[in-house]
Amino acid sequence: MRTLKTQFLLIINNRLLKMQAIGMLLCLPMLILFLFSSLEHQSIQYAEDVARQSEYAQEDIEWMKTTYDASLQEKHAREFQLDSMVVQKAEYFAKGQYVSYLQEAVNSWKLFFSLQKVRGYNITESQFPALHYGTNMAFDDVKRATLNINFARQRVAIFEGMLASTKEVTINELVGITARGQFYRWLGHAGPEVLYLPLFFLLTLLFSSPIFLDDKQHESLLEVKPISHLKYLLDKIISYWLLISGFEIFLLAIILFAISSRFGAGDWTLGILTFVGQEEVQISSMEFYGKAVLFFLLINFFLITCLASCNKIFSNKPLTVCLSGLVLFLEPLLRFLQINFLGQDLLPSYYISFGPVLHGVKDYFFYRGDFSVEKGWIVLSLWTLVLFTMMYLSVLVRERFRQERGRIWG
């Protein structure tokens, strides 16, 4: 414990890390202002999309009335009904009757889902405003259509949760720009949401990049009270992990607090619809966000161990940062190049963007791979153990070589 405390003090007193932390705090107000502008734009965009939906539905009704005869109109009565419900919910939204809007939206989507099963309709951006905020990143059109349907079902489940809740339905909660809605979106499975998490973990690479490189400055401290290599390595990594994770959680808390002060905190008790294969599974928000926190901690520990092992083995900070950055962005890079291979679900890089894994839709991103929350935890843990073992063995080999060289020259 004393050694761990010493490591904490060494990290906290590191001048470079202090400057980086202060720089992040100074940049935070600009980031929050940018978020405010983005969320306000989302609200305006959502209202425009609802109005545009109504226009499309009205045009569709007029077209069917002029094109279909009486028998065809009767045959397509459910399409008439669906378009009429879309027009009606837009009127509710314009009048600020958000509970009525939610009820009509849920009923219209349930009707659409039943028509989709019978007639094979595909969901499009014009039919669902939320899809305008990002293009789903499935590997092919079939999987993209399935992702869109799953995305719509999740949104409908949230609407049903709002209707069942005793809390007042606000426009910000409806659009999803509250603190809860924004945090949920950061863990989403539509693009560019899947890139938010790798970008966030750049902070981990930034703050942990000097790990073990400054050991020579503290050799005198280590010689005063020698400790085992294993304990030293563990204490160093754990201290960086605790401090960096705590600082990142602190930054995230400030951002969410700022959003909640402007747009509201939102209802954090809403259940979340996830998928296990083709099966729908409703879980509590506590379980969903609890799994997200565990993923966050495991990924941070993995990335810090990755940096530590590279620094110990190569003793070259630029090379270490490049290799760790490649690990961080390997999945987006390979997906951009459309490279698929067996065993990609066994690589930790494919779990850094863990939002789709939490939702149970990661499999749709690829032709090969079987992704799950539990598998992600195991993969991250095993790779962390492998990297730590390599680092520990390299330290033992170097120490043995140093002793042999000292004995020869002695």
From TrEMBL:
Transmembrane residue ranges: 21-39, 194-213, 238-259, 288-307, 319-337, 377-397
Alphabetic keyword roster: Membrane, Transmembrane, Transmembrane helix
Protein name from the UniProt record: ABC-2 family transporter protein
Provenance organism: Streptococcus suivaginalis
